[in-house]
Design a protein that fits this description.
Shape: globular
Strand order of the largest sheet: 3-8-10-9
Strand content: 15-25%
Number of helices: 17
Largest sheet: 4 strands, antiparallel
Number of strands: 10
Structural class: alpha+beta
Order of helices and strands: HHHEEHEEHHHEEHEEHHHEEHHHHHH
Distance between the termini: 40 Å
């Protein structure tokens, strides 16, 4: 490929039309495999919508959407749209959900929809006096915050309380103000950020300190979701499998190296639902992993044990700041269709469903790891991707996949050999 000598300094790139932006990229790259036509096709989301969502947009990247079946959540059968590129995730949820249907499926709970906004006050003269001055003015603080978003207040949301912390950052004492905001069916970042920005100059005038940082926290530990489910011992392979899974949980809860992958498995399911519904995957991931450290060390987000009958019981608790209004959730047409599949009316329902999916994913991953190993199911599904990469056409994919799995070597070079053999046989 010819090396580019162009500059990445492209003035007013954001003002250009779609094709003009692609022309600029092609010009920058010189001789390249870059295809403008590929980016002109934005699928089922019009470019104008895409352009309004991010700056300097040039196209879209399609992520597969699958539907998890078999889920019963709080007594109601659900179909769950999941957006993910990882081949085994949707199948894992389906299998885990099927195995606990006879015990009622998943039971869930959520706390309030409280988000936390933070204001960092620095150059504080007397931190304890400053703390008290702020607390004495809580009523005025409430009025300032609620004036920012009267619609939220009309929906029974808005300012619900506050706390003030004194923090030694190793250089000086900071006074950290937390406001608690009920964001109703919104994730709430914009509302909370607007409130702390409106409040900051007032706090400065009261305390003579400087408001340095003003933003919400993604450790939404006052907006928790919980899910639990029971798997009968005979339905999962007996006591040997049950006890192996319990040992796997204890390993994850005791060792952060294992916990990181254990919790990543949980988030495989959660992030797929979050992405499918246009919510903020990064915020949910950040909050979950921070919450895993709530005891002072990184541990399992889930908890596993047995009931009085010896059945395997799992539970999951984590922050779940999701919304049905605002952001991509309301703008992206595919997110809207996925919400229609979920058939829900509130952010509370979405949080419950998502948490249940995370628990199902965790069960499936642990069971696979202590029985057949994670690779058997995962690589069987991955074999299809390898077959396509090797050049298999639609009528050849299943045959190549089957032979890859049978041979146990799921590699592109092996797939190419199998494909060549099939085509030679067909010519004869």
């Amino acid at each position: 490929m010819e090396k580019s000598t162009s500059s990445s300094r492209i003035s007013s790139f954001y003002k250009l039309e779609h094709r003009q932006r692609l022309d600029k990229i092609a010009e920058f790259l010189g001789g390249s495999v870059f295809s403008q036509q590929h980016f002109l096709d934005t699928g089922n989301t019009g470019f104008q919508t895409v352009d309004n969502m991010i700056e300097n947009a040039i196209g879209t990247m399609n992520i597969p959407i699958g539907v998890a079946t078999n889920m019963i959540i709080d007594g109601k059968d659900r179909l769950i749209p999941m957006a993910t590129e990882e081949s085994s995730v949707v199948a894992a949820v389906c299998n885990a959900a099927r195995q606990c249907r006879d015990t009622g499926g998943f039971f869930t709970h959520t706390s309030e929809h409280i988000m936390i906004g933070q204001i960092q006050l620095i150059h504080v003269i007397n931190p304890m006096i400053t703390k008290q001055i702020i607390l004495e003015n809580e009523h005025e603080i409430k009025n300032i915050c609620n004036e920012v978003d009267p619609l939220l207040v009309n929906l029974k949301g808005g300012f619900k309380g506050m706390e003030v912390r004194v923090l030694d950052d190793g250089h000086e004492y900071n006074v950290i103000v937390h406001i608690f905001v009920d964001t109703c069916d919104a994730m709430g970042a914009n509302a909370v950020n607007s409130m702390v920005e409106a409040l900051s100059p007032v706090l400065e005038s009261w305390t003579k300190a400087k408001a340095n940082m003003r933003i919400l926290s993604n450790l939404a530990d006052k907006r928790l979701s919980m899910a639990r489910a029971t798997w009968r011992t005979e339905d999962i392979g007996g006591e040997v499998v049950r006890d192996a899974m319990l040992s796997a949980f204890r390993f994850a809860d005791s060792d952060p190296y294992r916990a990181a992958t254990h919790n990543k498995g949980i988030m495989n399911g959660i992030s797929a639902v979050i992405l499918a519904t246009g919510n903020d995957t990064r915020a949910i991931e950040a909050g979950a992993h921070a919450y895993a450290c709530k005891t002072g060390r990184y541990r399992s987000l889930s908890s596993w044990g047995i009931d009085k009958d010896g059945n395997l019981c799992g539970s999951l608790e984590l922050p779940m700041a999701v919304g049905l209004i605002g952001g991509a959730t309301k703008v992206h047409p595919t997110a809207q269709q996925n919400l229609a599949i979920l058939d829900i009316d509130s952010a509370d329902e979405l949080a419950r469903i998502t948490c249940a999916v995370g628990l199902a994913q965790n069960f499936a991953a642990m069971k696979a790891l202590v029985t057949t190993g994670i690779q058997k199911g995962h690589m069987s599904l991955h074999a299809k991707n390898i077959a396509v990469m090797a050049g298999a056409q639609s009528n050849e994919v299943d045959q190549v996949t089957e032979r890859l799995v049978q041979g146990g070597k799921i590699r592109i070079d092996v797939a190419e050999e199998i494909l060549a053999s099939l085509r030679n046989k067909n010519r004869m």
